[in-house]
Request: fold
Amino acid sequence: MEKHTARKYSSPLRERQASQTRVNILEAAQRLFLERGFAKTTIEAIAQEANVSKQTVYAVFRSKNGIVAELLDRAVHTDRTFDIYQRSLETADVHEALKLTAQLVLQVHESQSPVYDLLRGAGMLTPELARIQHDQRCRHRDDQEKHVRFLLRERRLKENITISMALDVFWCLTSRDVYQMLVPERGWSGETYTHWLYEMLVSSLLDHSEARPEDEKKK
Reply:
C-alpha cells in the first residue's frame, strides 16, 4: 500500500501572523520592563499585555532571557548597521574598512544602549541579565572574529602580532566597557570615539608598511 508523506504547509498569512505575534510580545515585554523592572515582570504579565497565552510566549521565546536576548539582537540588526557592515567588506582599502568598522562598533553600542538602560536596576545588571549579556557577547565575538579575519587578510601585521593576538586586541578595544567609559561617562562625542578607535586599531595592529592614504599623498 502506498504511503503518503504529510505535506509541509506554509501559509504567508500564517507566517505574517506569527511574526506580528513575536513583535507584540517583544513590545509588551519592553513596556513592562520599563514600568516594573525586569525582576518584577512575569511571563504571565507579558502574555496578558501582548494579548496572547502564556504558552505562546514560552513557545516563541522559552523564557524572559530569550525575550531580552532578542531585544538586544533586534537593536543591532538594523538597516544602518547592515549598510556599514557591507561597505566595510566591500572596500579594498584596509584603512577605510577600519574606519567603517569603528563606525559600526559605535552604531551597535548606541543601538543597544536603550535596551541596557531599560534593564538596569540600581545601576547594576542582575546576575540573570549578566548571564544574558555574557552569552550575547560570546555570540558577538564569534561574528566579530570572522569580520576581523576578513579585514586583515593578506595584510602585514605589526611585528610579533599574530592573528590570534590581533583578534584579542580588537575585542578589547571595541568592548562595551570601553565605549561606556569614554562616551556616556566621559562625554566623548561619537565622532571623537570612532576616530580614536580607528587610530588605536591601526597603531595596535598594522605594520607601518600598510601606509595610510593620507600618508601616501604626502610623499
